[in-house]
Amino acid sequence: MTRDLRPFPCGLGQGSGTTLNWICKNMHEDALNNHPDRVKNPDGPWDELVGVPGILAKQLIEADSNGALEVSVLDEGSMVTMDHRLDRVRIYVLSDEVVSRPPSKG
Question: Contact, 54 vs 73, CB < 8 A?
Fold first, then answer.
């Protein structure tokens, strides 16, 4: 396990890439099902939300951050300003309204 030591999301520590993949897979399933006991991720990035409907991803990020972040859902390739703001999260979705890349602050 020590040869590919990787940091886990949400401050869960560190461990092997296999364990990281298992954690991310289960976090994605919990987010997709809006599981009440899912691991909260207030700081991002939100890798587990890729493939989740954009509206659900927005609701989850807003709930995790207690409304401290301005969250918007945008079509992939939309024109946006280039300023970097740590109180903003942009969620990019494909034509089928699912998250196309991990949302992050900025």
Answer: yes
Q: Is the overall model pTM greater than 0.90, yes or no? A: no
Tell me the per-residue pLDDT of 41-70, one tens digit each, with 9 for 90 and over. 778 888 888 888 999 899 889 988 888 999
Contact (Cβ atoms closer than 8 angstroms) between residue 16 and residue 4: yes
Bridge pairing between strands 6-7 and 14-15 = antiparallel
Q: Which residues have a Cβ under 8 Å from the Cβ of 26 and sit 6 or more positions away?
A: none
CA trace torsion 45, 48, 52, 58 (10° rounding): -40
Pair of tokens at residue 8: 């886990």
Chunked into runs of 10 residues, the chain (106 residues) has average pLDDT values of 74 83 83 78 83 89 88 93 92 92 90
State how far the Cα of 63 lies from the Cα of 35, in Å rounded to an integer: 13
